[in-house]
Amino acid sequence: MSQLRFYQSLWATEQRLPGVAEAPISERFDQVKAAGFDGMAIDLGAMDLATAWAVVPEFARSGLAALLTAFPRSIEELRPALHLAKDIGSPFVVVVGQVMPVSVDGMIPVIREWLKISEEESVPIQFETHRNCITNDLFATLQLIDAIPEMRLSADLSHYVVDREMMLPLEPELAAYVSRLLARSDSFQGRIATRCQVQVPIGFPQHRPWLDLFLSWWDEGFRHWRARPGNERQDLVFLCELGPRPYAITGADDCELSDRGAEALALRELVRARWTGLLSP
């Protein structure tokens, strides 16, 4: 029977406090393990490949499962990231492609080349719905998934809420566009956005309508995922990715407005409840 597996991001464990050194990586792995997460994600947008290789022993030591996000700046730059993914046992690689042709016609061969490398290396890839990359724009991504049926997504919809300055209540046409993305998504990332801010504290009452929107999207995405043949024997990855500043909003005292560690746990439980509800008769 499929399980929902919760991952934390190593990047999201950074505090980035001015003048204060970050906790050692081994300590952060231990904290994530103690918090009950199933795995840890390495983000090659936040560290270089050599540094990431040095982190590899922490997975075996901590017992956390691994996930990798790559930011390839060329077609071939994806390949070494896939080698790292094999070494840490990442079930797939999330791609935030830094090759960004202006036209969709120019994007299609880039996506196909990365998919070819994925097949050659026997490592599945999912393209994250992310700003400042080949899937930067909601409308372009919809055209890409129409043109490339084998293209799979990792849904971080916070980027598209800001990208398209979505307003509540969501227009039916826009909701239908998001549904098309969710139907092609094989993993999900957790962050709450508003139309003007990519990450907001989830406990503030003024953000509750946006939290409810994202919970409904994840619910829909989970339903699509569970309906696909073969997934009844697979696990679904949900990555809690509440990033440090400047993703996290700071006040005049230069401190974050909320406790991201506590928020990640609260978000995990809200999402777990949605998943559990889908399993109820």
Characterization of the model:
- The protein is an alpha/beta fold and 281 residues long.
- It has one domain: Divalent-metal-dependent TIM barrel enzymes (TIM Barrel).
- It has 9 helices and 8 strands.
- It has helices at 25-34, 49-62, 78-88, 104-121, 138-147, 158-163, 172-182, 208-227, 260-279; strands spanning 4-9, 39-43, 65-70, 93-95, 125-128, 153-155, 185-190, 236-240.
- It has an 8-stranded parallel barrel with strand order 1-2-3-4-5-6-7-8, surrounded by 6 helices.
- α3 (78-88) links the parallel β3 (65-70) and β4.
- α8 (208-227) packs across α9 (260-279).
- The longest helix is centred in the last third of the chain and has 20 residues, at 208-227.
- The radius of gyration is 18 Å and the shape is globular.
Number of strands: 8
Give the DSSP E fraction (strand runs of 2 or more residues): 5-15%
- In which order are the strands of the major sheet placed? 1-2-3-4-5-6-7-8
For the record, the CATH class is Alpha Beta
* Separation, N- and C-terminal Cα atoms: 15 Å
Radius of gyration: 18 Å
**H/E element sequence:** EHEHEHEHEHEHHEHEH
Give the fraction of residues assigned to helices.
40-55%
Mean pLDDT: 96
Can you tell me the CATH topology? TIM Barrel
* Shape descriptor: globular
Name the structural class.
alpha/beta
- Low-confidence blocks of residues: none
CATH architecture: Alpha-Beta Barrel
Report the major sheet. 8 strands, parallel, barrel
Question: Which homologous superfamily in CATH is the superfamily?
Answer: Divalent-metal-dependent TIM barrel enzymes
Please, how many helices?
Answer: 9
Q: What count of domains describes the coordinates?
A: 1
Organism: Aureimonas glaciei
Keywords: Isomerase
InterPro entries: Xyl_isomerase-like_sf
Protein name: Xylose isomerase
